[in-house]
Amino acid sequence: MFRFRTSLFASILCFSGLSAMAQGTEKPTDPQIADIAYTAGQIDVTAANLALEKTKNRAVRSFAEQMAREHEAQNKQVFALLDKLKVEPEDNDTSKSLVDAASKKQADLLQLSGAAFDKAYVENEVAYHQNVSESLEKTLIPATQNSQLKQLLETGLKLSKEHQKHAEHLVRELK
Fold this sequence. Notes:
It contains 7 helices and no strands. It is mainly α. It has a single domain, classed as Ferritin (Up-down Bundle), CATH 1.20.1260. α3 (30-54) packs antiparallel against α4.
């Protein structure tokens, strides 16, 4: 079932909504955390693919290519670990809220083009990676029980912070 959801996530975008993770009162389980991590990565791949379709800006295109490549690689690592551990990801309210927010954001971004799209895409990448980093630090990593999953999330945190810095740099370039 998890692999079939890929097509669903491939059709949506989300740049915010991860802050809901930090607001939940129940600690997520490892299968839920794996689902959240995959969902967040796939959402950024989908966002990057939209940017690749719409942008004419060389720097934005390069950034989007990097986002797609690196998040796809990280999602492959999540799948490989889950297969190794024989763990089935578990759908949860956080993943569902990401999907809901993605649908709304996609509708907004699809209305934009040119410099307006580039600016909105990159600004949202800043916010998205900031939310991802915060959620990883405050909720997901501390709640993770499996040491291998925790290590993968810690690598994801470093990557998210690098992506945020890159996006912040692009925002300054686009002004």
